[in-house]
Amino acid sequence: MPSSTLNSYRIIGLGNAGVNFLDRLLLKDPAFSGLIALNNDAEALAASVVTTKLLLPSELDYSSSFSSEALAKALPQLVKEMDQASVVILVGGLGGGCASTLLPHVARMSKAAHKTTLACVSLPFSFEGKRTQLIAAQSMAALEKECDGLIFLDNDRLCAKRASISALGETFTASDEAIEAILPALLAILFNKGPVRITRADFLKALQYRGSKHSFGYGEAIGGNRLHEALERALKNPLLDRGRCLPKANHIFLLLRGPKDISFAEVQAAMQEVERLGGSDRDIQLSVYPEKPSGESLQIFLLAIIGGTPAALEVMKPLPAAESRVPKEEVIKPQLKLSSHETLPSIDLLEYPHASQDEHAVLESVVSNYEALASSLKTSTTEVKPYSQEEEGSIAPKKEREDKRELFQEDLFKKSAEISDAIATKSLLSPKLKQTQGALNLKALQRGRFDKSEPTIFEGEDLDTPTYLRLGLKWN
Amino acid sequence: MRREQLFVGLEIGTTKICVIVAEGLPDGSIHILGVGDTPSRGVRKGEIIDFASVTECVREAIIDAEEKSNVEIRSVWVALSGGHLQSFNNRGIWILPDDHDAITQEDLRMVEINAKEVTLPSANAFLHTIIQNYHVDGNRNVIDPEGMIASRLEADFHIVHGVKNRIQNTLRCLESLKLDIEDIVMNSLASAQVVLTQQQKDLGALVIDIGGGTTDFLVYIDGAVRHSGVLALGGDHITNDISIGLRLPIARSELLKIEEGSALLTTSMNEQKIHLKNDTLFSGCEIDRKALNLIIHARVNELMQLLRREVERGCHLDLLGAGIMLTGGCSKLRGIKTLTEEVFQLPVSVPLLSNISGPTSTFENPEFSTAIGLTKYANAVYTAIPQENFFSKIRDVLGGFFGRQ
């Protein structure tokens, strides 16, 4: 690889969503370079502000016989652009036609050219329909195999807490803003020339967890209390849920980017805060990239990889993990084994003697929903049968059989997800974990009148937090 | 009386802004003519965070002082604090040119410049270069070498520096009020002028000035400043802890700290309750005295432990023959003297200000020690330096902050 390409990148936006992400990125920072818009919609492409625009030839056959070689042949400029980079990042929204079909092929092209290939995609909202979800899941599975690393934005999780109060436009904007924050952060991690770096190998290895969930947040602040404010904003991102998801993360990446005057105390305080939220046994990797002039804002990006299986281990496993997004029959089969005499673990309200009246009301509703789910599952497992048994003795037309099979798989996939969620809800409500979360919040927010002022850090300790709290003194 | 003998000290504190108008007397003492003070807004931990509010507060305090002293204030001596202030000791060396037969003022200036040849953080500027002692041809502890015949002059200095922009913010605030700045003095250095006698400075003493937002300290050994520093912790932290711990409004917590709080833990307080009367926007409640004192004790004990560690970095505690002098508003807190004695294992006193005359309510109040100390510092500078050199010294100090580094 020529040395000139070692530190260069190309960000390729595919489809309408992908091009839209690039446009937003460019409007925010016009100096952003290396962006390529790739779309089959000539009108959308013409409206884009990206300089390098590539229109997908309409004569290409996008059916099952479509290959990355055909794409490379049709788009020589894309190949040329890729050659000039060491890292290729693909951006798009899954579930539609263009990005879902082409992303795995472009990723394969990039890999074939020996480029570090990352994909950064958004998953569709659940209201976009089951078919869209399925297409997205299939495309994700293919992308996981082709890329060195895959980061995805789960739009449903992002907007779950504010879906009822947000306008539709706001919901989409939140999604766009999230992707907008990821891309510069990714580049900063990959091309960091600062004093504290994360190696590419470590970063990519963490992104290769199959079936994992990605939670991230971004915060930016300026002024005396910039660290606390930026970190608070990052943690406020719905995906990070005020840091409550961090104890479950396999890997946590913390990026501090901004002015050259980032102090040692700030870096130390950020690490300590993340370690406090995630637990000292978490794998927390830090990257500090002081590249801007003093006085500029401090940016914090926090990425948590939760759950999943390392790609290397997955090869040895006979079955994929139950959380895989591809609704394969083998994946769902274990869930089917819930027979009539088996029961789901029960939630006993007596386990929560200290819950307040309001908390009891919430618990009661959770328990009733959980029990209804358990009974419906029992019913469904006895009623729903695999198509081969149902159709035994009669031969249905092939198309009809395929449709039924698809519906059956979707139904089971949904049920499986619901059970996982219900069990997760119970485990979240278990008294032990609840106590831990309460303690974390208490400590993080108790700075009182000094909440907005520059922290007094002494030997890594924030002295603005009351001494009795830090010492754990009690008077009752 | 010549106008130049009137000095105005201004302290922009976290809880209050205080202006003292005093008259310098030839014997080195000062006579207070008037005091102006106003509650402070826009200052946090000794530093300006709201420029407009601070400017307005300073204006109010100046007008108050002018009315009480019947003096029109045109120039001020300003006290400075904040966690950004740092200090170190350094020695300057100057080899006298062959044609010099005796040490001159110019040689003393050159040895000081040499001592300041250190790399400060790019954002910082020198605030004080305080002479400790001179060495003439290896002869230690020379007090005044001017006129002595020598070939090599060395001098130890205590150098204080801070973030330039933060210092300039204070100056800019006063500029906008059309006030001339005579000099900028570190809080603890100003306080030490009135809480310590020359004998105590010679014996070795530690001055701790506990204000609302910061705690400033200064160590004198053998009559010279050996160590100084600022911790961005003060009485506001105690109030904040009470407010969070007992779930009380900040104003109520402040009142509770002053009226009932103590830094000592005693067994008699265990069952005692303090009844807080209802007030506007406060419905009243009953709290445990034990809880209140525990919160205060934890904070003050931690502050003193940190101070002890900081002081020990610069000097040995055994050298503090005169013990510790507590001053500043927070030194009035019950039990703080005893707790400080326990932590440092040294005698502690809350002294009356010395060589001051005027309204007793002012100089008996440790809250005013910095502002009064400023006027005494000014008087000392004025009497020690000839009139001609006095103004050149002021020009040098200010030149540093306005870009003529």
Describe this structure in words.
The complex is a heterodimer of chains A (476) and B (405). Chain A is of the alpha/beta class and 476 residues long. Chain A folds into 3 domains: 1-191, Rossmann fold, CATH 3.40.50.1440; 193-325, 60s Ribosomal Protein L30, Chain: A (2-Layer Sandwich), CATH 3.30.1330; 327-391 and 404-434. Helix content of chain A is 47%, strand content 17%. Chain A contains 18 helices and 12 strands. Chain A has a 6-stranded parallel sheet with strand order 3-2-1-4-5-6, sandwiched between helices. In chain A, helix 2 (42-47) links the parallel strand 2 and strand 3 (52-55). In chain A, helix 1 crosses helix 8 and helix 13 packs across helix 16. Chain A is globular, with a radius of gyration of 25 Å. Residues 313-342, 379-395 and 423-444 of chain A have low confidence and may be disordered. In chain B, strands 11-6-1-2-3-19 form a 6-stranded mixed sheet, with helices on both faces. Chain B is globular. Chain B has 12 helices and 19 strands. The longest helix of chain B has 26 residues, at 289-314. In chain B, strand 1 and strand 2 form a beta hairpin. Chain B is α/β, with parallel strands linked by helices and 405 residues long. The relative contact order of chain B is 0.16. The two termini of chain B are 36 Å apart. In chain B, helix 4 (187-195) packs across helix 11, helix 6 (235-246) packs across helix 7 (250-260) and helix 8 (289-314) crosses helix 9 (336-344). Among the domains of chain B are: 86-164, Dna Ligase, domain 1, CATH 3.30.1490; 197-350, Nucleotidyltransferase, domain 5 (2-Layer Sandwich). Chain A binds chain B through residues 224, 261, 294, 446, 448-450, 453-454, 456, 458, 463-464, 466-469, 471, 473, 475, and chain B through 44-45, 49, 83, 123, 231-233, 236-237, 239-241, 243-245, 250, 288, 290-291, 294-295, 298-299, 301-302, 306.
